[in-house]
Amino acid sequence: MSFFLSPISEEVKSSSLFNPYLYTFAFASLYLLYCLLYIWLSSEIASHFAFSIQELTSIEQWKGTVFVFVTTLFISVILLLTLKRIEEYQNQILHQQNLLIQSERRATAGIFAASVAHDMNNYLFSMSGAIELIKESPSLNITDKQQQLLNSVEVGLQALMNLSTSLVSVEQETLQRDVTLIDINNFIEEIIGLTKHHQRVKKCTVRLEPMQLPQVLVDVNLIKQALINLIINAADAIQHPEGVILFKTALTHQQLLIEVHDNGTGIPENLRQKVFEPFFTTKNNGSGLGLLSVKVCMDKHHGNIKITNSASLGGCCIQLAFPLN
């Protein structure tokens, strides 16, 4: 799959839909205005209806009681609405976490199936070609019984090819193609927002240093899963509480670059070619399939992966290079 570039139609302006400082200032200003108006108006009314110090004292007591009751009721309503909104946000976060876990499982199954099918096909085609050469070689003087055995082997190979095709269909079902024209920087910001509540990522600060890029046509599901796994693996590599994961985007004449930096322990040079192989892992409880999604994503987009030391954070830097044409 290749990238198709199109100019950005308009400048993207990042703005927050909810500004807590603005809302707090507005609430405090309204409450202060309400208190001042109440004090001033109630004092004016009390001065007109009180004909003695005792009556003024009684009115002031009732006025204070009413003020406390009304403000308590008002603050309780505001607090209730705020807590309900917090509860809704918590439920949304839990829902997103569940969706993320389900997406990881489906994508891992599909990616593993695709990897196995690809390797299996290579061996099967080699074996099938060897059998054809044996059958077509007149110098071997194959007997009828040997011919039957070769035919049986061919039937078995065909069955394995059908199984390989089934595995490919599993990949197609679990990794549904969603080729879309997107802004890579905005897409990375969405992925950061999606993963920041992940159990293994929430200890880290994840941020993006973007470069202005053209919009690109990509397989959204593949890139999403690849970036999620890169974030999770970077978080796992950080063994201290002040973890930082930094995304950088860049553009050359031939490639669009996405870099993922971290301040973890890094990847030794002798392991950098192995980390994308199925089942290879350096973790005690790792499956060895997480980074496989990155390899599949880059293969589908005809891109390449490069692992270096991070000059920005001192840990690891994984660079994804996508061809522009």
Automatic annotation (TrEMBL):
<keyword id="KW-0418">Kinase</keyword>
<keyword id="KW-0597">Phosphoprotein</keyword>
<keyword id="KW-1133">Transmembrane helix</keyword>
<keyword id="KW-0902">Two-component regulatory system</keyword>
<keyword id="KW-0547">Nucleotide-binding</keyword>
<keyword id="KW-0812">Transmembrane</keyword>
<keyword id="KW-0808">Transferase</keyword>
<dbReference type="GO" id="GO:0005524">
    <property type="term" value="F:ATP binding"/>
</dbReference>
<keyword id="KW-0472">Membrane</keyword>
<dbReference type="InterPro" id="IPR036890">
    <property type="entry name" value="HATPase_C_sf"/>
</dbReference>
<dbReference type="InterPro" id="IPR003594">
    <property type="entry name" value="HATPase_dom"/>
</dbReference>
<dbReference type="InterPro" id="IPR003661">
    <property type="entry name" value="HisK_dim/P_dom"/>
</dbReference>
<dbReference type="InterPro" id="IPR005467">
    <property type="entry name" value="His_kinase_dom"/>
</dbReference>
<feature type="domain" description="Histidine kinase">
    <location>
        <begin position="115"/>
        <end position="325"/>
    </location>
</feature>
<feature type="transmembrane region" description="Helical">
    <location>
        <begin position="61"/>
        <end position="83"/>
    </location>
</feature>
<protein>
    <recommendedName>
        <fullName>histidine kinase</fullName>
        <ecNumber>2.7.13.3</ecNumber>
    </recommendedName>
</protein>
<feature type="transmembrane region" description="Helical">
    <location>
        <begin position="21"/>
        <end position="41"/>
    </location>
</feature>
<dbReference type="InterPro" id="IPR036097">
    <property type="entry name" value="HisK_dim/P_sf"/>
</dbReference>
<keyword id="KW-0067">ATP-binding</keyword>
<dbReference type="GO" id="GO:0000155">
    <property type="term" value="F:phosphorelay sensor kinase activity"/>
</dbReference>
<dbReference type="InterPro" id="IPR004358">
    <property type="entry name" value="Sig_transdc_His_kin-like_C"/>
</dbReference>
<dbReference type="Pfam" id="PF02518">
    <property type="entry name" value="HATPase_c"/>
</dbReference>
